[in-house]
Amino acid sequence: MTAFDMADLNSLIRLRKHEVDEKQKVLADIYRQVEVLETKKSELLARLERERKALDDNLTLETRDFYGRFENAVRNDVERIDVEIKNLEVHLEKAQEEVRVAFAEQKRIEIVNERRKEEEADEITNKESRELDEIGIEGFRRKEKP
Question: What is the CATH number of domain 3-144?
């Protein structure tokens, strides 16, 4: 293993980390979009409930008519938001899978890199051990010669 090969893996690891980060940003953005829609939906339903309570206090024909139109508009908005959320959930699942795949690929490369480092360290240790053995044997031979 050369230093050049190790540098290549380190660059590849940095690239994969960047890809994971970018995919996580996309995922976070989708989560934010869903959260915004859920908040809008909750606000609409809360407003609908407030108007319903206000209607109970004022039971004129005009207010009932107004409330009926208002309720239909709110229900339509809620349905539209639900559709948007469902569409985002499809994108969310896809983005989650992309993050999982990118992270798994990053981890595979990191594991290969660690194994290579360990192999290189073992190689160096074995080489040093062989060299020390040769020095020891040579020293022993010199002592044995008359």
Answer: 1.10.287.1700
Q: Would you tell me how many other CB atoms lie within 10 Å of the CB of residue 95?
A: 20
Q: Residue ranges of the domains in the chain? A: 3-144
Q: Which residue type is seen at 70?
A: F
Q: What is the pTM of this model?
A: 0.71
Q: Distances in Å between the alpha carbon of 30 and those of 22, 27, 48, 93, 101?
A: 13, 5, 27, 10, 18
CA distance 5 to 113: 10
Residue 53: per-residue pLDDT = 84
Under a CB-based contact definition with an 8 Å cutoff, are residues 78 and 45 in contact?
yes
**Token pair for 132:** 């020390």
